[in-house]
Design goal:
With about 500 residues, the protein is α+β, with helices and mostly antiparallel strands. Among the domains are: about 130 residues, Beta-Lactamase (2-Layer Sandwich); about 150 residues, 2-Layer Sandwich (Heat Shock Protein 90). Helix 8 packs parallel to helix 11. The longest helix has about 90 residues. One of its GO terms (molecular function) is phosphorelay sensor kinase activity. InterPro entries: HATPase_C_sf, HATPase_dom, His_kinase_dom, HisK_dim/P_dom, HisK_dim/P_sf, Sig_transdc_His_kin-like_C. Its EC number is 2.7.13.3.
Length: about 500
């Protein structure tokens, strides 16, 4: 099953990447083409402006003057030679002082031949600005047809057309005006716009270095017509389809991964719980091994005393022997109580516990005994601490054990300081510090082992049980590094849902 899930994840991941990659390629298709066309237009405009400097600059000296047909053809010839190197382009000139266009051509469209020198009447009819014979032509015949467009170009664009196509003329005029005032040395100005049913790119450049320039050139490429726009729309729909497929596949992959992560989290939590139970049983096994020894000694003492009472009822039943039996029973009772605390650790009902209140109650409980020993109790409890989640009785027993150990370390007096504070990771820390002899370095690693004790009357279960209870609550009990006299034990417990 795990192998099947892995295969499904890999397939969905690869499919989503493929869909998104296809969408990106389709989306960049048009933009990449347009960038290449814009660079080609800049080069064409710059070359046309440089080539036509002498020809175009001399035609714009007189404001309001309209270029003659012969001048228009000369400019068109210059534009035709340059644009022959740039297929599918249109271009021409703008004369700023007369606000007129001239020499508009389209690459690949041949010009109509100029009239022969002796055909003056025909020349005058086609070029009213030519000076020549004023007599009217009396010959009658069919009107001359306008030249047919070639290569799909506008009619007459190679036969002396002056202006750009009508729909584009206003925007090209405005762009040419911007070019003639642009700073000398600037690259040609390129703009892409939608005009009517077409999308066009236009480059304009000033002629010469004079500013404002007397003339400008314009070069235009039709990026798309209605048919191309329809193809682009289909390509856009296809790209959007691939994008949607990629997103849906990515969501499916995320769903699969989230499900796998949740299953893995539950599996890890179950394994962690089993591990904690196994550790708990292992510690319990070690405890039981020590319990046999701890229980046997008091039972032996009780048995010996009772047997002595049976043999010598009058002489042996003294107050001292009775006190010895009671002391042994108390020792057994304490041992059983600690074992029960250990067995119940982690199984009590959890509820919010005010650690400051537990600490204050514990300190008040031992204050009378501390006064008799000459021990001064001080507290530094941080205000506004959030509650910890746990069993109040078990946590109180841990705090009492730490405080009792500190008092036992100072039989001739000293100072006990209990402090609470918030620490990183969402934990509350309670420390109990004493001014006793401290813990020898060679014992620091063994004091938390079950049945380890330095006192003759100790069970050796106190610190071991404290650590076990704290860990069952998601915290820990540690011995702070030695920093002077005494010892400092730290109890850390999580707030809310924190765990260690």
């Amino acid at each position: 099953m795990r192998a099947v899930r892995v295969v499904v994840v890999v397939v969905v991941f690869v499919a989503s990447l493929a869909a998104l990659a296809a969408s990106s390629v389709l989306a960049l298709w048009n933009s990449t083409d347009e960038l290449a066309i814009q660079e080609r237009l800049r080069a064409a405009a710059a070359e046309l402006a440089a080539t036509s400097h002498d020809t175009a600059a001399g035609l714009a000296d007189h404001p309001g003057s309209v270029p003659s047909e012969s001048d228009n053809r000369r400019l068109a010839e210059v534009a035709r030679r340059v644009l022959a190197n740039y297929p599918a382009t249109e271009g021409g000139f703008y004369l700023s002082r007369s606000d007129q266009f001239a020499g508009a051509v389209m690459s690949g469209v041949e010009a109509t031949p100029d009239p022969l020198p002796d055909d003056k009447k025909s020349a005058e009819k086609r070029d009213p600005d030519r000076k020549g014979d004023k007599k009217k032509d009396t010959k009658k015949g069919p009107p001359k047809k306008e030249p047919e467009p070639k290569d799909g170009g506008p009619a007459g664009i190679g036969a002396g057309r002056r202006e750009p196509p009508p729909l584009e003329t206003p925007s090209i005029r405005q762009q040419c005006r911007e070019a003639i005032n642009a700073e000398a040395g600037w690259p040609p100005l390129v703009e892409v716009r939608d005009v009517g049913p077409s999308r066009v790119a236009v480059a304009t450049a000033a002629v010469g270095s004079e500013r404002p320039a007397r003339a400008a050139v314009w070069v235009m490429v039709r990026l798309s017509g209605p048919a191309q726009q329809k193809a682009d729309l289909e390509r856009l729909r296809l790209a959007n389809g691939f994008s949607l497929a990629g997103v849906l596949l990515a969501l499916a992959l995320a769903t699969i991964l989230i499900g796998s992560l949740q299953r893995e989290t539950r599996r890890r939590a179950a394994l962690g719980e089993e591990l904690r139970k196994a550790e708990h049983l292992a510690v319990l096994g070690r405890l039981l091994a020590g319990v046999a020894h701890e229980v046997r000694n008091p039972l032996t003492a009780i048995r010996s005393t009772v047997q002595l009472w049976e043999r010598l009822p009058a002489q042996a039943r003294t107050p001292e022997s009775l006190a010895a039996v009671v002391g042994s029973v108390d020792r057994l009772n304490e041992l059983v109580g600690r074992l029960l605390l250990f067995a119940r650790a982690g199984h009590e009902h959890r509820r919010p516990v005010d650690l400051n209140a537990v600490a204050a109650e514990t300190l008040e409980l031992v204050r009378a005994g501390a006064d008799e020993q000459g021990v001064t109790i001080e507290s530094d409890l941080a205000p506004d601490l959030p509650p910890v989640a746990g069993a109040a009785q078990a946590i109180g027993q841990v705090v009492l054990n730490l405080v009792s150990n500190a008092l036992q370390a100072m039989p001739t007096g000293g100072k006990l300081l209990c402090r609470t504070r918030r620490v990183a990771g969402g934990f509350i820390e309670l420390t109990v510090a004493d001014t006793g002899p401290g813990v020898p370095p060679h014992l620091r690693d063994t004091i938390f082992e079950p049945f380890f004790t330095t006192r003759t009357d100790g069970t050796g279960l106190g610190l071991a049980l404290c650590r076990e209870v704290a860990r069952q609550h998601g915290g820990d009990v540690t011995l702070a590094p030695a920093g002077g006299s005494g010892a400092t034990f730290c109890l850390t417990l999580p707030t809310g849902g924190g765990t260690r």
